[in-house]
Each structure stands twice: as C-alpha cells, then as structure tokens.
Design goal:
With 133 residues, the protein is of the alpha+beta class. It has four helices and eight strands.
Amino acid sequence: MTASSIIEYIDRYDGDVRHRLLTVYELIRSAVPDEAVESISWRMPTFKLGTEPLFFFTGTKRHIGFYPTSDAIAHFSTELAAYGTTEHAIQLRHDATLPTELMREIIAWRLQQLPSDRVLVSRLGAPHRSAAG
C-alpha cells in the first residue's frame, strides 16, 4: 500500500534510514515556501509549488535517492563527484555522512531557478521565486 503523506512514508522505515529520510524532509521543508505542497508522487515524497515539482526523495536499501532536477545535478556536478548520480538523482549512501550543507546549497539553488515574477519568502526568510505567477 502506498503511503498517503510524507511522514507516513518516512514512518515505514526504521533506525538510521528513517532518521536520514527525516533529515532530508526537514532540510527541504525548512527551505521551501509555505505555499509548497507535500505529497506522494511516483511513490516518492514530493514537494511541489503549484504544478512545478521541486524535489522528490526516496529510501532504498543502500541509499537515499534525492531528486532536485537534472539542472541542479548538472550545476553541482563538481561538488557531487564523490556521490553516485544519474541524470535525475543523487544517491546518498547509508554508509556515508549525509552532506547536509551541500544539500542546503542545492535546495537553495533549485528554488532560485523557479520561473516567475513573484518572489516569496521561504520559511528561513530567504527570498525566492514561485512557480505560481
């Protein structure tokens, strides 16, 4: 059965994986604007602003999959050289420290890329643009 909320999704995991998923959730939630919607899409925790997908993430046996868009992965390719990546995902292995500072930078960069004339204030007070114009 598919989880109906991000917290329900995270609660299906135990121990360190649950803690790591919760950390990723909190990093994203603290940065996105209040208008961002949390959901489960493609069986993954998802944050959207209007119809614009912002971030997806997922837990696997060996890593956390973090999906900040292919543009973000390309932009941070040098910083991500030590991590497994695909065109759309960053693989954050469970046997390595979660790179929270790098993730904050990626999240902030991604939010700055949103196409819109409207500027919103995130939960951290940093201005960024909304996809809902």
